[in-house]
């Protein structure tokens, strides 16, 4: 299934008609450069174009009052003076004779996107719209927003498709207070937002944007705010909040639909956000949400005012929605102190509502809750400072790297008598070894008579890894007689030649995994029921689940809170996923794991399985081909000792691995 793209140039046909410094950044070019970048890169042709439509009155009234709608309806007939007058009753927003029409198109586009996804016409999609929506409220326009596009889409999805749980992720750099107000007492809509806050000194300067606004009444726990109290947040900070706050809750919530308030003013170069995260981060943020809700994801444009980073960020998002390989994120160095404080506060505020956050630490000693608003004078001075002054350092950043699709997505190397799963390209495993390779084997194994099995295994692996490294294939599946031996073979013999860093994810317990590198060429993360408290080295990390890999709750927690951060920090060139026989891992969890691991090494994942486990080759192939993993149904409360052990492990490791840090 494809990716929907909604865009209508009519939404570029309104602009600011008078002088207002607060609104001058919201210009039609925002939409034009975004769409043109998609056209120029060839991405728009790969999407399924869905026409915009006007939202109807009844759809708008799902969120807004009749009084407000009737008032906005009058704006097309207003004189310039009337428009100015009308605008004065709202904050940081402007009206225009054509903005009502565009606002209906923006909301209608979001609804078209929901229809396309919910009817299975497409898997996911993005709507490039203006005016944006997440600040507008029941009876008021605000912050460039007229109708709350995403809030209307959430209500619409519930009403028309009986969607039970909607996750709204708001990565715009401003707090979508309009969305928060709409759903704060509603447990069927989980709203997550991070936003520049600076202890309430940043617009919209609301006390209720802080981390302690967790929702009300039956909605308690279903509103998550992560305030950024400093500017300059980087990729590491964003990923830490996803891994340690959003994703554990999102997986426990288990949504039927994911809506994204896709604002790109959280990217580097934006005059509003003043953050330093690069456009390719949105490739990963999108990817990390794509295995929720069976892949049903609708992104709706909100903010984004640096036309260069906006266009790049939109392209990065669309490329991931299309299933292209992810860019490798370089030198992630863990969250900054302020980010750790914020995520620790958010986690502790929510630990009573979410069992996946149950073991979160207490809030930091330094009370970062809202400081007294600085004197109005001080605040005035700050905003008085010319906009240009504050961002003259003229941030520069590298063009996001090309994300080329290898000619073959998934290859397999199987015993001749095993049928190849649909979609996988079988590599001939019986090709006789080139003489060169045989001699390599001989001196490598330093035994005269190299035993057949080992040679076969080695040659199969070597063939596949060569192609992965050459980007001729994206990922691969290998069935071998002895999976432990094959893993040793890769770890000991193949690593130095072909790849610099291999992340080995070992699922299930094995006999003699006694090979551990200390030079960092291999990082082994083993998830099993094996209780190995002793820590061999920074590069061998055993995660013990009391009930073993069949405990999906414990497993997903270990993946989100430990494996993902480690993987991002280690930044491997190859991921080796080893499924030990009898691991007991649940199929949907296995597919989720394969899906999430695609975020590393440009998707170069090599799955190693034992021949006698060939029954799960089908679901493995499906995940390797990029099909969304099935949702993890009815997750039990994780075992306390597992949750505790994971926290202890993280605390012990965070000295070596900064991205594991969740406490300041
Ligand atoms: N320096 C000028 C002050 C601007 N203050 C208002 C900012 C509004 C942000 C709107 C947005 O970006 O959140 C949306 F997504 F809605 F468009
Ligand atoms: Zn914004």
Automatic annotation (TrEMBL):
It holds the Pfam family Hist_deacetyl. Residues 26-320 form the Histone deacetylase domain. Signal peptide: none annotated. SUPFAM superfamilies: Arginase/deacetylase (SSF52768). InterPro entries: HDACs (IPR000286), His_deacetylse_dom (IPR023801), His_deacetylse_dom_sf (IPR037138), Ureohydrolase_dom_sf (IPR023696). This is Histone deacetylase domain-containing protein. It comes from Ameca splendens. The lineage of its organism: Eukaryota, Metazoa, Chordata, Craniata, Vertebrata.
């Amino acid at each position: 299934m494809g990716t929907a793209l909604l865009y209508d140039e009519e939404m570029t046909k309104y602009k600011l008609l008078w002088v207002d410094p607060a609104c001058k950044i919201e210009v039609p070019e925002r939409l034009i450069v975004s769409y043109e970048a998609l056209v120029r890169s060839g991405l728009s042709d790969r999407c399924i174009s869905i026409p915009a439509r006007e939202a109807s009155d009844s759809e708008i009234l799902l969120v807004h009052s009749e009084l407000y709608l009737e008032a906005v309806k009058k704006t097309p007939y207003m004189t310039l003076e009337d428009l100015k007058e009308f605008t004065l009753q709202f904050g940081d927003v402007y009206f225009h004779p054509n903005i009502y029409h565009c606002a209906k198109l923006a909301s209608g586009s979001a609804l078209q996107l929901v229809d396309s996804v919910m009817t299975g016409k497409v898997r996911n999609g993005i709507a490039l719209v203006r005016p944006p929506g997440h600040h507008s409220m029941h009876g008021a326009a605000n912050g460039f927003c007229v109708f709350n596009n995403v809030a209307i889409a959430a209500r619409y999805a519930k009403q028309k498709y009986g969607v039970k749980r909607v996750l709204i992720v708001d990565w715009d750099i401003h707090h979508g207070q309009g969305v928060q107000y709409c759903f704060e007492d509603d447990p069927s809509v989980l709203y997550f937002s991070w936003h520049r806050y600076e202890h309430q000194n940043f617009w919209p300067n609301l006390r209720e944007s802080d981390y302690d606004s967790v929702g009300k009444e039956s909605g308690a726990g279903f509103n998550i705010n992560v305030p950024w109290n400093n500017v300059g947040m980087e990729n590491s900070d964003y990923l830490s909040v996803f891994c340690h706050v959003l994703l554990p809750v999102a997986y426990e919530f288990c949504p039927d639909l994911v809506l994204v308030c896709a604002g790109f003013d959280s990217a580097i170069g934006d005059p509003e956000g003043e953050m330093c995260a690069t456009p390719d981060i949105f490739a990963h943020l999108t990817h990390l949400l794509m295995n929720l809700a069976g892949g049903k994801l609708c992104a709706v444009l909100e903010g984004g005012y640096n036309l260069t980073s906006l266009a790049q960020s939109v392209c990065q998002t669309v490329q991931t929605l299309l299933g292209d390989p992810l860019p490798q994120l370089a030198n992630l160095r863990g969250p900054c102190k302020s980010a750790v404080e914020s995520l620790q506060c958010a986690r502790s505020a929510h630990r009573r509502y979410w069992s996946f956050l149950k073991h979160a630490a207490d809030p930091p000693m330094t009370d970062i809750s809202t400081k007294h608003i600085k004197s109005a004078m001080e605040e005035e001075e700050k905003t008085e400072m010319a906009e240009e002054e504050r961002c003259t350092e003229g941030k520069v950043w590298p063009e996001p790297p090309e994300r080329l699709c290898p000619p073959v997505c998934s290859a397999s190397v199987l015993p001749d008598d095993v049928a190849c799963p649909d979609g996988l390209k079988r590599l001939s495993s019986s090709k006789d070894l080139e003489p060169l390779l045989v001699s390599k084997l001989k001196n490598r194994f330093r035994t005269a008579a190299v035993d057949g099995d080992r040679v076969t295994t080695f040659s199969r692996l070597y063939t596949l890894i060569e192609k992965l490294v050459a980007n001729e294939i994206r990922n691969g599946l290998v069935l071998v007689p002895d999976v432990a031996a094959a893993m040793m073979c890769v770890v000991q013999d193949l690593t130095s030649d072909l790849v610099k860093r291999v992340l080995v994810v070992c699922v299930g317990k094995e006999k003699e995994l006694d090979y551990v590198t200390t030079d960092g060429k291999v990082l082994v993360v083993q998830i099993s029921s094996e209780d190995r408290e002793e820590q061999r080295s920074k590069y061998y990390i055993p995660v013990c689940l009391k009930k073993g890999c069949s405990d999906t709750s414990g497993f997903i927690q270990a993946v989100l809170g430990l494996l993902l951060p480690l993987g991002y920090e280690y930044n491997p060139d190859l991921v080796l996923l080893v499924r030990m026989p009898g691991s007991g891992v649940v199929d949907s969890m296995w597919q989720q794991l394969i899906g999430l691991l695609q975020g590393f090494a440009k998707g170069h994942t090599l799955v190693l399985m034992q021949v006698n486990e060939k029954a799960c080759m089908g679901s493995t192939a499906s995940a390797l081909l990029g099909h969304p993993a099935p949702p993890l149904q009815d997750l039990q409360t994780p075992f306390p000792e597992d949750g505790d052990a994971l926290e202890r492990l993280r605390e012990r490791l965070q000295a070596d691995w900064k991205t594991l840090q969740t406490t300041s």
